[in-house]
Amino acid sequence: MSSAPRWLAMATLVTLVAGCSGTKTDPDQVRQNVRLVDATPAAAGPLAEANWLIAKEPSTVDLDLDAANSQSDLVMANVCERLLQLRPDLTSKPHLASAYKWATPDTLVFTLRTDVTFHSGKPMTADDVVWSMRRHAADGAAESDEYVNVTSIGRTGPAEVTVKLKQPDALFLQAMAGDAGVVLERAAVEAQGDKYGTPRGKDACSGPFTLDTWASGDRVVLSKAPDYWDKAKAAKTGRITFRWAEDDAIVNSLVTGSADGAYLENLAAATRLASGGTTTISQGPDTRVWNLMATERGALADARLRKALALAINRDGINRAAMAGLGQPAKEPVGPGAWGYEKAVFQSAYDSLPGSPVPPDVEAAKKLVGEVGPTEPIVVASDGTPIRDVIANALVDAAGKIGLQASITQIPPQQYGEYLIKPDLRKQADLFADDYYISKNDPVGFYKNGSSKSSVNWVFKDPEYDELVPKARAAIDDAERAGIATDMARRWADGMPWISLVQSPSTVALSTKVTGVPASGCYRYYPWAADLGAKGS
Length: 537
Description:
Layout (H helix, E strand, L loop, with lengths): L5 H14 L7 H6 L1 E3 L13 E5 L15 H7 L7 E3 L5 E3 L2 E8 L2 E6 L13 H12 L12 E8 L2 E6 L4 H6 L10 H7 L16 E7 L3 E6 L14 E6 L2 H10 L4 E3 L15 E6 L4 E6 L8 H10 L2 H9 L4 E2 L13 H10 L9 H11 L5 E5 L3 H16 L4 E5 L2 H4 L6 H4 L4 E6 L7 H4 L15 H12 L3 H18 L2 E6 L2 E6 L2 E2 L17 E2 L3
Parallel strand pairs: 1-13, 2-11, 2-12, 16-17, 16-18
Antiparallel strand pairs: 3-4, 5-6, 6-8, 7-8, 9-10, 10-11, 12-20, 13-20, 14-18, 14-19, 15-19, 21-22
Helix pairs in contact: 1-9, 1-12, 8-11, 9-12, 10-17, 16-17
């Protein structure tokens, strides 16, 4: 579609969303060729080198910066390690910390491994862990919100770190398997100064790969760590080169064999790759969901209008047109990969959530619009990428069917992601389409975003909800926490600060010559490339 006139592209997308009759591939046939697994089959042998494709260049490899994104995580998950480790089944286990315990309801003690060495060859110390955690907790750091209840972090033994909190916090422990639990070598970071995290710097980590080269604008290269401390988990691949490309180029490179794999952000790219010829497609559980996020601009200040649009939008059409049918219409803004405990409770609560019907309930939506009366025109943002164009057109189509005026504003891709941190950019639109995921296997890890103080909630203010956030975090008992989480989910659905659209399972495309990597969303935090290797004959 890149060669088609802009107006023709828009018209085609509207047709796809409205009726799905314009698709040339059968989503049901595509799904038959997709493997549903936590991980692809284990590698049979080593691989000298591999070429891996990602959607865009990492903006930094310093995971404490707001500029870090999913591409930064995807690459650096193989270089940096965490106190806990997220596994392919989305459970977590001790890692750099060999054990942990709640010494009291508000005191968490980590026992550290004594055999870990950084890439410099120096041993990991309790002082490195304390310094790293304090760096994550610092004002303005990307992971500082995970430390909201922490009052002190200290070395309490040669291989022991103790964290004291204002209250028990079940999410804090889970966060130690994400970027909030990364352990850095203090001396290596401080010696680099401003170079750390940039193409001029080096890594300061302990993982199975080292950061070999970052040639800005071209590639990032990781090399197998020569003396990785965990011999049993050493990388099977000697060298992996990451390059970034548009969707069509990713597909063509995989089909022709010039690339070995990619985690696909655009699921529609899987249509040519799921044929079973030169590539395979595998999907696994994830927390990632595409949503329309309502801004404080004002046209959707009344929750009834947000709920009306949620009732009227065609989720199945979006899934088929934008994701080749490989997604799943979503009722809530966090995927089932977050159900790491009490799964039956969460499934039952999900099934009963109202407000996100498939097919749309246009008549119910019209009633809500009628209750509100005359409204301002609605503006939805897109950055011109296929999936956001599909979503934007679906929103305009839904609005028109229920008596609302809506239009699309185009925001340059390089600026689009800044809406999260720039209120002036949010003034340009009432809705931004984006995907969102969490590092924890706990819905509370998402629903804390419903707080009135949340940086990603601009329209939903509920004092009773605000009281549930600390209560949920403090509920160490899983059954108690699940009950609070489902209450939060119901309140979120009633307030509808975001309009949930489609669950996006983690999707990995591989050459038929390689295997071993996880299919689940753990790849953002788990050293997935260490499992990559040659496929058996």
